[in-house]
Amino acid sequence: MFTTAIIIILCYTLIVIFVFFYQRNLLYHPSENNYTSEKINFSYEEVFIPTSDGKKLKAWFHKKNLKQKKTLLFFHGNAGNLNNRIYKLNMIKNFDINFLIVAYRGFSGNEGSPTEEGLYQDARSAVDWLNKQNINDKQIIIYGESLGTGVSAEIAQNKNFAGVILESPFTSMVNAGKHYYFYLPVSFLLKDRYETIKKLKNIKIPILVMHGQDDKIVPFSMGKKVFLEANDPKYSYFPKDDDHMMEYNENLLGALNKFLQSI
Fold first, then answer.
1. pLDDT tens column, 231-244
2. In sequence order, what DSSP letters do the residues of 181-210 get, joined into one string?
3. I need a surface site. Which of 51, 156, 182, 262 has the fewest CB within 10 A?
4. What pTM was computed for the model?
């Protein structure tokens, strides 16, 4: 029995060591390729956004009128490339806005490897790039999808953006990790923490939280908590049957349009 206990302890220790060193491969999936059947139905310019550490980030820039219309800055989730968001962009292009979607380091052929601090740097670089296009913060709407909600929460703190949209947000990566790896000391192991819930108090611009109640990846309870903890003015869209990748149907588009018209 003593030998069995030793074997169990050794196996558990090996699992902990493996997860610690391999965790970013578990979190970031740039090669995953979903939602590729859609064809682009919007005009765009491919641009490359420089970062302060010398990288260049691939991005698509859809322009209507930079001076008179707001610009939505889109931060995607933890998997796939820009092409995987075409089905959303085909709908977003119908709103009376410009948009910029940027791929993180390590995604869509960009050099580098993704980390929490690296993604924050990428996001700030995208904002700086828009500012250099004579688009001020008051004309920028931040949009985060899944992991991108953690990025959005970071850069929206104490800023005067027009608003922020969080699609399928989590309270923190620590809490999300505990949901999946309840048998591991996640708080101790995790390198990239994305503490969204702690940052909400510093976000004092209009916020829209969208989360499907049937989300099987990020529990709906997290999205609801994000909404409850957010400052006013705040808006929600919580469809009963939507999963993690929300349905871009008339109801969601209506919620988005209502929010965009309000800011």
1. 999 999 999 999 99
2. -TTS-HHHH-S----HHHHGGG--S-EEEE
3. 182
4. 0.94
